[in-house]
Amino acid sequence: LVFRSLLFTKDKEGATMFTLTATVVLIIVCFVTSTISSDVFTVNCEPLTIQRSDPLVSPNLPSGHVHAVIGGNAFSRNMPDENAAARANGTTCDKKLDHSNYWVPQLYHGRSDGNFELVTFLGAAIYYENRACNYTNTSQYCQSGKYPLAFPEGFRMIAGDASRRTFNKSDVTNLAVKMMCYNPNGVSGDYQGLPPVPCETLRAEVYFPSCWDGVSVDTPNHKDHVAYPTNFDGGVCPKSHPIALISIFYEFFFDTGKYNDTNRFVFSQGDTTGYGFHGDFIMGWTNRTALQYAFAECISSSNCPINDAGSTPTHKGPEKIPLITPAVYEEEIGLNGPISVLPGNHTVNWDGNGPVYVKIHSSSNSSSSINGGFWVSPGKNGPITATGTLETATTFQLLGKDMYTTFINKVDSLFIQATDGGNSPLVAKSGSPSTWEEFMLIQQGDGYIILSQANNQLVQLQSDNTLIANGKQTIAAPTTFFLVYLSTQSNNNNTHSNTSTTTSGTVTPSPTPTTPSSSSAPAFIQFSEAPYVFPSIYLCILLITLIFSL
Q: C or N: which end of the chain has fewer Cβ atoms within 10 Å?
């Protein structure tokens, strides 16, 4: 009776009506529940297999390099038809309706004896996101209330380029590949290539194109039927690929905690840079309708009907299951111990692609000769000074970022920063790549002048022997720095037995950005767009209107 009295009352004529309290509560509950939804859910997966197979690029043949694979257990070298993945009788992933396959190049470690060992593959997380929207010429932004199209049956694609060895920040396909260095008790951070610092876990990431031409579920290169939206991770689709698909984002985890020589990692295609990381995808969801409405039905990523759909008490969550078709191994790939060569006979050019270590010598302000000035060393969290000798000088790693360079103090793996807008000395105290300082090396005679990108000022030697990025580019006698290159495999700080007299080099410009396809939109679109989900807010309005009309 008390509950009823809170909800209902009677007017002067004796008619039953909602109380003001009930109406207010109803409005609040209605609006809150109608606006709660999630634009992301995660497919968490155990490893399925590591083998030299790629049913997209090398059907029925050994692939060019070894891959780490997750997902449905129908994975094999022969997956030609649209239902090949869906025919799996199980999956290593926690979304049991998802029999798709996801794979990337396997990571190896180059040992000091010249052999290679597999880096333990821990598993993966695949993010399904509502980040893109259909092409329109009337808006640069995606509207709420619409959801991207679920992948059609038989859909497959590739993101990334196995042969890439450089990074171009103007190319969206380059930006879609990243590495995350995870250290639970230390500094973690994102990198465009393989991290130059020790990592407890390496998380290799690739973001897939989420715009579709609406016609082809695949193309010969497994790329032309898709494109990136405005940004690599979301936005409006281009006219050439007008249909927005669900965005998928790979995170593959490798256990790198036991390795200290961070310059000895290589992906299975011989890539020591990490820029050639890539991913393959074959659609295998057994219930496309459930996938289509997954976002609309999700309250949050952890409270989502798709999470438990298809699960049973004995098959719930990520799990290890056997392949239907056993893997074929023509040679040892590292599963039984170290191997002498990467499968596929890939040559690893550690010197060409690996880190570059240098010691830096400064001239005095009045001299552009290596005979003046001192060797550069940073104090512990203090200013970088030019006061030392070759024997005491710090070893720095040069890490290329586009056409700029970052200096890393190899003693404690700290990045050099310019502080206070260039008005304070340079310091080597940042462990976070988000605060990297970028410098351009400009050749000047036998040495270089160093230009800070942060304020477009030259690095200068001050009267107190500290280095400050506050010199004008037009000064008559800029401070010249000389780089003495060490062995590319050296991690030693205060030795110079491997030094050479090489002091020349050039800054390599970025490659030309890839030009996206400019083909016209297809005349016939088989799946024109995802269904429009009727927002429950409209039902709320109708209900409230009805209440007040009583």
A: N
